[in-house]
UniProtKB/TrEMBL annotation:
This is tryptophan--tRNA ligase. GO terms for molecular function: ATP binding; tryptophan-tRNA ligase activity. It comes from Cochlearius cochlearius. It is an enzyme of class 6 (ligase). It holds the Pfam family tRNA-synt_1b. The keyword Ligase applies. InterPro entries: aa-tRNA-synth_Ic, Rossmann-like_a/b/a_fold, Trp-tRNA-ligase, Trp-tRNA_synthetase. GO terms for cellular component: mitochondrial matrix. Belongs to the class-I aminoacyl-tRNA synthetase family. The keyword Protein biosynthesis applies. Keywords: Aminoacyl-tRNA synthetase, ATP-binding, Ligase, Nucleotide-binding, Protein biosynthesis. One of its GO terms (biological process) is mitochondrial tryptophanyl-tRNA aminoacylation.
Amino acid sequence: TMPKEPSVLRQNILDTTAAILACGIDPKKCFLFRQSLVPEHAELAWILGCLTNMPRLLRLPQWKMKRASQNNEGTVGLLTYPVLQAADILLYKSTHVPVGEDQVLHLELAQDIAQHFNKKYGEFFPVPKAILSEL
């Protein structure tokens, strides 16, 4: 949600890809792709954003904390990032999502959005369940 130099962003993408491959992810057994090249993520985020009310987003603790750290000048991108996360999950009709404790509220938002969408337009998105990691 913060502006980045294009060259730094490109290098970050390469570094992240290298780290994923170094962890043992086998591209012959899974799909590995650059999400920013899939326009449906942003398109679905827009649609879901039109179904999500502001008070719901403003209550998220991550928004409150990050906004405070940015001198109360949080961006629209920061505010709506959880809707983009919901789009990332729902686009693939995910049924289970591995999350840490800090992301449970964002997954609950995705669940709420899926239920609201389904109620309004008919059953389309599964309501994803959390798989909490145990450390």
